[in-house]
Amino acid sequence: MPTDLQDHHPILDSDARMVYRHLAAHGSASIEEVSAQTGLPPTTTSRVLRTLRKYHLVERDADSQARLAAVSPDVARIQVVTPLLREIQQLADQVDQAHELLNDVNADYEQSVRRSAIEFLPSADSANAVIDELVEKSQEEVLLSCPGNVHSQADLDAVQARAESLLRRGVVIRCLYQHSARFTSGTAEHVSSMVEMGAQVRTRSDGFMKLAAFDQKAALIEQAAAANKYVLVLDRSVVTFMRRSFQRAWSRGTPFSGGYQRAEIESISRDIKETIIHLLVEGIEDKVIARRLGISLRTCQRHIAEILQVLGARNRLHAGYLIRDRGLHSPDSHQPADEPGDSPD
C-alpha cells in the first residue's frame, strides 16, 4: 500500500467535505482564502487540505503553487487505486511463488523426514496446526489421554471445539483423564461438558501418558523431557501399539457419568490410595507421587497419613514393610492388563 495511505482510514470528516465542495465550486484558492471563506481555523484548514491531498482530491494549481484546486474523484481514483492494484498483483505473484517453492521443497521433506513416519514438532503452535488437520480428516475415532490436572482454559476450549466438530460427524471420542480432573475447577466443568456432548470419558489414578490418536493412522505424543514439543507418529505399527496401550489404560478407568455418585467417589478414593500404596512400596517421594497422581502435595500427604494410620505404621519405611508382610501389594496390581482384541469395554 502506498506509504501515504497505509495508516490512514479512508474517511473524510464534515470539514474536509465542506472544503472540497468549496474548492470544486469556486476554483483555486490559497490556504488563507479557504480558511477565511469557510470560517475554519487555519490549523483545521491545513489539516483538512493535507487529508484531501493524500487522496489526490486537491492539488496545487498549475499556475500558482501557493493555490490549491479541486480534482475530479474519477481522476483521483486512478491516482489512488492504480498503485494499490499494482501492489495487490505483486503480492499475489509472491504468494504463487511461495506456493511453488514450498511444493518443490515438500518432495524433499517427504523423502527425508516422513520416510521414517516420525516428525518432530518444535512448538505447541505447530502441534495444534497438525491436530486441526488430523481432526478435519478423522472419520472413525479419536483417543485422548490427558494426565495431570492443570490445563489452561485455552487448551480446554480448543479440545471442546474440536470435540463438537468430531461428534457432529459421528466420530467416536474417548478421553482418559486422571481422577483429580473430576475435582479441579475448570477441568471438571470441561469434562462434564464433554460427557454431555456425547464423548466417552474415564478417569484413573496413574499409569498413562499424554496421547492423541486419530483413526488408527496417526498419533501425537510429547517429546521426552521437552515441554510443549511433540512427535507426530504415522507408522501404522507404532500407532497400533499406542492405541493398544491406551486400551489397556482405558480398561482400568472409571467411567465419568458427569455426576458425583457416592459409590463412584468411594471407588476413586480407594483407587488413589491403592496407587499410593504401590508407589510407597517403590520408594517414590511424596512430591513425585503427588505429581504423578495430579494432586496437590498436601492432599497426597493426607492420603499417606490415612494409610499409615490404617496400617498402624510408624513411618513410611514401616508402612512398606507392613504392606508387603500383609500381602497388600502386588507388583502387577497397577499395571494395565492386556485385553483380548482392540475393542473397548
Commentary on this structure:
- With 345 residues, the protein is an alpha+beta fold.
- It folds into 3 domains: 1-112, Arc Repressor Mutant, subunit A (Orthogonal Bundle); 114-255, Endonuclease Chain A (Endonuclease, Chain A, 2-Layer Sandwich); 262-325, Arc Repressor Mutant, subunit A (Orthogonal Bundle).
- 53% of the residues lie in helices and 13% in strands.
- The chain has 12 helices and 11 strands.
- The protein has helices at 14-26, 31-38, 42-54, 73-112, 124-137, 153-168, 187-197, 236-251, 262-281, 286-293, 297-311, 316-325, and strands at 29-30, 58-60, 67-70, 118-121, 141-146, 172-178, 200-204, 211-214, 218-222, 230-233, 254-255.
- The protein has an 8-stranded mixed beta sheet, sandwiched between helices. Strands 1-3-2 form a 3-stranded antiparallel beta sheet.
- β5, α6 and β6 form a beta-alpha-beta unit.
- The radius of gyration is 34 Å and the shape is elongated.
- It starts with 13 loop residues before the first helix and ends in a 20-residue tail after the last helix.
Quick recap of the structure?
With 345 residues, the chain is α+β, with helices and mostly antiparallel strands.
Radius of gyration: 34 Å
Count of helical regions: 12
Distance between the termini: 61 Å
SS-based class: alpha+beta
Per the CATH scheme, the topology name of the largest domain is Endonuclease, Chain A
Helix residue percentage: 40-55%
Order of strands across the main sheet: 4-10-9-8-5-6-7-11
Strand percent estimate: 5-15%
Give the low-pLDDT segments: 332-345
In CATH terms, the superfamily of the largest domain is Endonuclease Chain A
- Overall pLDDT level: 81
